[in-house]
Amino acid sequence: MRRKQPPTVPPNPEQLTAFIARQRELLQAERDSDIERTSLLFSKCSPKLLEQRGLALGGLGVASVQLGLGGKSLVELERPTAYHTSPIFPPHTFRPGDLARIEQHVASAAPRKPAKGGKKATGDAGEGGKAVEGVVYRVSDTKIVIAVDGDRGSQDGEDLDLPDRCRVLKLANTVTYDRMDKAIDALERLVLPTDPSSHPAVPRLVEILLGLYPPSAYVAAPDLQYLDPSLNPSQQKAVRAALEAPEISLIHGPPGTGKTHTLVEIIRQLVAKEKKVLVCGASNLAVDNLLERLIPHGIPVTRLGHPARVLQNLQSSTLDAQTAASDESQLAKDVKTDIETTMSALAGKGKARIRGSDRKKMWNEVKELRKEYRKREGGAVKAVMGRAKVVLSTCHGAGSRQLFNSDFDVVIIDEATQALEAVCWIPILKAKKLVLAGDPLQLPPTVLSLDSKSKPKKATANGKGTKDSETKAEPPGAPLEEVTLPESDDEELSNGSDDEDAGGKPAEDKAVEAEPVAPLDTKTEQKENKRICRLRAPHSLEVTLFDRVERMFPRVKKMLTIQYRMHDTICSFPSTTLYRSKLKSHESVATHLLKDLPAVSQEDEFSDIVTVPVVFFDTAGCEFFERSEADGLGGGLDEGSKSNENEAAVVQRWVQKLVQAGVSPGQIAVITPYQAQVTYLTSLLRADMPEIEIGTVDGMQGREKEAVVLSLVRSNDKREVGFLKEKRRLNVAMTRPRRHLCVVGDSETVAQGGPYLKSWMQWLEQNADVRYAGLDDP
Ligand SMILES: Nc1ncnc2c1ncn2[C@@H]1O[C@H](COP(=O)(O)OP(=O)(O)OP(=O)(O)O)[C@@H](O)[C@H]1O
């Protein structure tokens, strides 16, 4: 059934101008904070401190230099025995995909000279070689591999002039900001053209996202056949909505509810209809996760992005690999061989040294051949891209030159609640229809400039904002969009966007076909018409596009309601308090415990460990006080990290018990909100258990483990809980385990952190197996 077109709402240039100006202002503040943070670290921290903060690895030697994909040199670095007693790296923050600089190791304790945070900031590494920059390709406990662009050295790496003793430093990346700025500029040109007489045709999707029109009614697909028979009713409903919506659809996927599973079905359906799809994720990991799940279905996919940022087992799907294997690239290879032969003759590897005018002539030949090579390689890339039906990249990667002038029928953004709005606009401007998936009740994107509580600057005619000295006034007609988390259960999901019965029952209902998506009633239509034309300038970058669209048009959101991860007891607190009790456990996980794992002991002596879904070691009254990291940095780099050694001892003993019971260290994660506690726990546990995962709560988002031990750290007389207070962080923390959650913390301190923490402490008292945290036990 087709709804009549909604009334045309005249675009409101003031609101648009204010919105765009505010986006720019926030992005600039974020870029400044990022660069400032990097240079502050570099200028204030001694090399030793940089290493302690995990931002540098020192005393490294080059183990090998090899030629990698895309002509990159892969520089492998390790800790030589001459400088270190152990080859294992200390805890650090380097991950594949990070920008890094290799430079000469400096032994002094003094801060190094300030370095530019930008990508291009290369420099002299002092005596013994040049500094080079690249992308972290692979990291293990003992080796780090950096991919350096081919033009930084010869292809065999011989003239990469690296120091004998190196240090690797992590760098800020400003390319992402440049691309986000460009996307906002393009959006502005589209909706606020400088010459109004040449008004470009604005895609309806863009108009909807800017609140100028409500989304059109669903176009029924009565013959829809689900390809995956395992989809539950709420997943089916989300798939149907995504296919029937003409412009926009949101999928709200609480932890473990099969967001990716659902997106895979949507992509398969779109491919069956011969649609061209751009699939994006907020992170490389999110993209690879989808790619891994699409490959078994035989869907022809092309993964964009630096090969260093793509998981090893997925390399064959990358554009680089597909281009190299294409027929078209054969032509380029011939030219490459010619270049190499000529170059080697010029280098004197032939019989006679070439001199004078012959030499000049040959260099000119090389120049021409290189031009030809680039042309042929470009042609091969174009041919591969032309054949691709499903392209995967990060949102930021969608701004790469391979996608210039490409259009797609649908763009899908996974983990959209972790992406800045501006980065989402990069792929959105290439598509007619958008599907956003995420969970606004888990952590939002990381924002460094959050402390800048400034109101938006007065927008100027060109929308670029004013100088600091000018009045900071709220722009006319553009109220601020606050980041608000529903305080009560009723506020969340109060929009009625999810049918009460949409997949609300566990597995037995699986066979029930989801109902078609309901047509709009007049009331909803009226409500939406009131909402439109209320485009709000965001208060902070934490307000995501998902948040904005959900608020403007709640009906386009479908919630997945059956989770396939947690024991029902673990699921019950987040379900009741955040998801209005809609989150149900699938029968396959509802009662699963550690004892059901094959290698776990069935002996009685372990039963109080492996048959309990939630354990709480309450340290109240034990005087296990936290310690503040005196890192001397100040300047708001972070909250000032905290650790708690006594709590860590409790964690260590519980982990040992789990392992004695037969749970393998690889099935366990130890998580905590504080980096200092991560460092301390790593020093306690890593040596005996290299496979155990130890990390911050933020780093575990999107991941799961059979058993999770959560160290809350905060214990003080002032009853301060810091950023533990953030519900979304707590939600991530308590929803990582599958079969067993062990919480270690001081209920007296934590319960003072507001109503949510208080209710969690009460819930733990009543539902967990509460244990004594004194040092003689557990
Ligand atoms: N309908 C289903 N039937 C059986 N298993 C399912 C179904 N949907 C999802 N799962 C399983 O549930 C687990 C979680 O699914 P998936 O990874 O798609 O969830 P997600 O929502 O993307 O996870 P996260 O919370 O980490 O973002 C996977 O092991 C998946 O195979």
From TrEMBL:
SMART domains: AAA, DEXDc. GO terms for molecular function: 5'-3' DNA helicase activity; ATP binding; hydrolase activity; RNA binding. The keyword Glycosyltransferase does not apply. Keywords: ATP-binding, Cytoplasm, Helicase, Hydrolase, Nucleotide-binding, Nucleus. Residues 487-501 have a biased composition (Acidic residues). Its main location: cytoplasm. Transmembrane segments: none annotated. CDD domains: DEXXQc_SMUBP2, SF1_C_Upf1. It comes from the Eukaryota. It holds the Pfam family AAA_12. Residues 502-513 have a biased composition (Basic and acidic residues). It is found in: Cytoplasm; Nucleus. GO terms for cellular component: chromosome; cytoplasm; nucleus. It catalyses: ATP + H2O = ADP + phosphate + H(+). Its EC number is 3.6.4.12. Residues 227-551 form the Helicase ATP-binding domain. SUPFAM superfamilies: P-loop containing nucleoside triphosphate hydrolases (SSF52540). Residues 107-128, 445-525 are annotated as: Disordered. Residues 245-547 form the AAA+ ATPase domain. Belongs to the DNA2/NAM7 helicase family. This is DNA helicase. It comes from Calocera cornea HHB12733.
